[in-house]
Amino acid sequence: MDEVSTLSSPAAEHDLEANGQIGIVLVHGFGGGVFSWRHVMGVLARQVGCTVASFDRPSWGLTSRPHQKDWEVNQLPNPYKLENQVDLLLSFCAEMGFSSVILVGHDDGGILALKAAQRVHASPNSVNSPMGDNIVPNSGIKVYPTSWISFPSLGSMVEIKGGVLLSVSFTREVVPGFARILLYTSLGKKHIVRPLLQTEITQVINRRVWYDATKVTAEVSSLYKAPLCVEGWDEALHEIGKLSSETVLSPQNAATLLQAIKDLPVLVIAGAEDALVPLKSAQVMASRFVNSKLVAISRCGHLPHEECPKALLAAILPFINNLLTKSQVHNQ
Q: Which InterPro entries match (predicted)?
């Protein structure tokens, strides 16, 4: 499900109406979900005074896991492809009523956020919108798409004001190597592969990505294990495995992406002890944007929003408040 946290403080620094329905959208990475942002979502909404929404990507969280026949029979795009998730993300932003957004993406969710910014820049007047991957107003319920419609003005309606990239790399395959091997094992051996996959993914998410593994409590483990119990999780992961190279950008594709969004304000956040995306990689990432800043969080691994939420909020609040202030001045 997607989740929304709205302003609860009467003494907000920024007024939603004055900011033209600007919102902050959180996009999780591999193995995450709405639950991944539980330590920062509410605090962020109260501090900045605008709506903060979390987008649950297909194949993760507690969202539905469509089977291949579901989209082939209905002649729909594959929801696990990164380019199609860009459509879903922009549609979600529009359905939320946002005229402009600040995207916060973790890991390959950051790649998705950057590609969304590229899409808006490249096609300002036309975006295909899937009807279903939207939040039903006032309910928090999401339905998988059953049809596609065209929103001729969607691109111009949703402006991306800036981006926050957490532990993002252009060159890393997010699906672990051993998991990729298991995913290519015959589906006829599901009874063998499933428990091995669950163990491997859980180990990666709950141990290898943390600097301080003592913070991986039983509650944290259960949250990250839950998506691996949703019906169809293994087939969805198989699709993700087949498409995992999409998150590895060739030098040419990376250059094209960066050129398209060269003026986008970007804050790059890195865990100083991140074993998956080293600090040097984050430094290179930040250097490739014209308007960027890098913040390294000490004693932190690959999940700053889980392991060091207070330090993360201290890093992103000035950046977001600055963008909101500029938006407010522009709208006056």
A: AB_hydrolase_1, AB_hydrolase_fold, Epox_hydrolase-like
- Tell which residue, 100, 122, 125, has the closest CA to residue 323: 100
Residue 138: left if φ>0, alpha if ψ -120 to 50, beta else—which one? left
Alpha helices per DSSP H over 188-250: 190-203, 218-225, 233-242
Q: Give the CA distances from residue 304 to residues 231, 272, 298, in Å, rounded to whole numbers and listed in that order.
A: 29, 10, 10
User: Do residues 191 and 307 lie in contact, with contact meaning Cβ atoms separated by under 8 Å?
Assistant: no
Distance CA 211, CA 221 (A): 15
Half-sphere exposure of 197 (CA within 13 A, CB side): 26
| Per-residue pLDDT reduced to its tens digit, 194-225 | 665 666 566 656 667 899 989 988 898 888 88
Name residue, tokens 């063998």: 192
Dihedral, CA of residue 75, residue 135, residue 327 and residue 41, to nearest 10? -120
Q: Distance between CA atoms of 256 and 235, rounded to whole angstroms?
A: 32
* pLDDT confidence of residue 179: 54
DSSP state of 136: P
CA–CA gap between residue 91 and residue 154 (Å, rounded)? 8
Query: What is the C-alpha end-to-end distance of the chain, expressed in Å?
Result: 36
Spatial contact of 205 and 224, defined as CB atoms under 8 Å apart: yes
Residue 119 near residue 148 (C-beta atoms within 8 A): no
Q: For the chain, what is the radius of gyration of the CA atoms?
A: 19
